[in-house]
Amino acid sequence: MAKKVTMQKIADHLGVSKFVVSKSLSGKSGVNEMTRERVIQAASQLGYFTQKNAFVQGVKRTPPVGGSDRNKQSVLVLMPNIRSQTQDSLYWGKIVDGIALALDQEGLGMVIISENRADNFVNILNPSGILGLVGVGEISTSLLLEVHRIGLPMVLIDHEDPLIPSDTVFANNVDSMARLTNHLMGTGHTQMHFIGNIGFSRSFRDRWIGFRSALEESGIRLPLEDDANLFLEGVEEEVFQEDFKNWVMKRKKAKTLPTALVCANDKTALSASDILKAEGLNIPGDISVTGFDNIEDASRGVPPLTTVHVPKEAMGRAAVEKLLSRIGHPSAPLEKILIAADIVHRDSVDIPRD
């Protein structure tokens, strides 16, 4: 039987005091951020967080109940206001709509918090009456650590943390992007580039993996992996235009433009399309462009954007269903739920130019 991972064991592993480990894991002040991150990482590697009841404070929460009293319970929706993660977003807002509808059908309330600092989050959070948490989008490790510390069941949507174990819900990004890439190859495209920062999110990276695997399976040479378009900064804030414009001009002058651009999401694709058109290129006559997510603006593009429809409301509903299941079965294995996503064919793709 494996020995229990204690705070003292973590302290010995790092060569620090148990006092430092305790403060780091409890979220208290008095420890610098670098030391705190080292402690959290070591705790994760040693298996501290995966131990049953190993990291739960003595917080008394109202247990889930059935019948008419259940409408007194609420679920916390944590959506830090970063990277356009707001209810007004054409992507994130739809996910929250799905969460709200699923909770309403269960007679449960919803409390939305957009805080992104762990110390403020602790002051806001009152675990009494909170059944659990659904995290939407990117959430810092320190915030998730606070949730884990107090023992709130949680499910994350479109995000996972390598240090904090939890159930997660994603679109099936790898398979969906592979199908989209195969569609492009089926129309004759062999010169394609992926556009988007693959370090931006797990979803972007998985979409790149799907693109790459489809090309490899067809024996098509991959674009260079150090291509600047794989690490475009400011994609979500749409401030990558200058770098992308310079790339287009350089490729255009050298007559090495690809015949298709496979973009990490619709916002990137729409912004890239504007730049291509400003440089005198016709879409799809000169170059095809695809997106991912199927936000409402995708159908309004000129031309309308071929993309992948991510069932955003379904992701929200799936997260609620998983959270309620987790509450009822706290010891069940953690799950990563993948929601199927389908290609939406529009006018931004055509056969490649001669």
TrEMBL record:
Lineage: Bacteria, Bacillati, Bacillota, Bacilli, Bacillales
Residue ranges of domain HTH lacI-type in the record: 5-61
Keyword Ubl conjugation in record: no
Keywords in alphabetical order: DNA-binding, Repressor, Transcription, Transcription regulation
Classification via InterPro entries: HTH_LacI, LacI/GalR-like_sensor, Lambda_DNA-bd_dom_sf, Peripla_BP_I
Pfam families reported in the protein's UniProt record: LacI (PF00356), Peripla_BP_3 (PF13377)
Coiled coil (residue ranges): none
Species, as recorded: Paenibacillus pseudetheri
Origin: domain of life: Bacteria
Full protein name: HTH-type transcriptional regulator DegA
SUPFAM superfamilies linked: lambda repressor-like DNA-binding domains, Periplasmic binding protein-like I
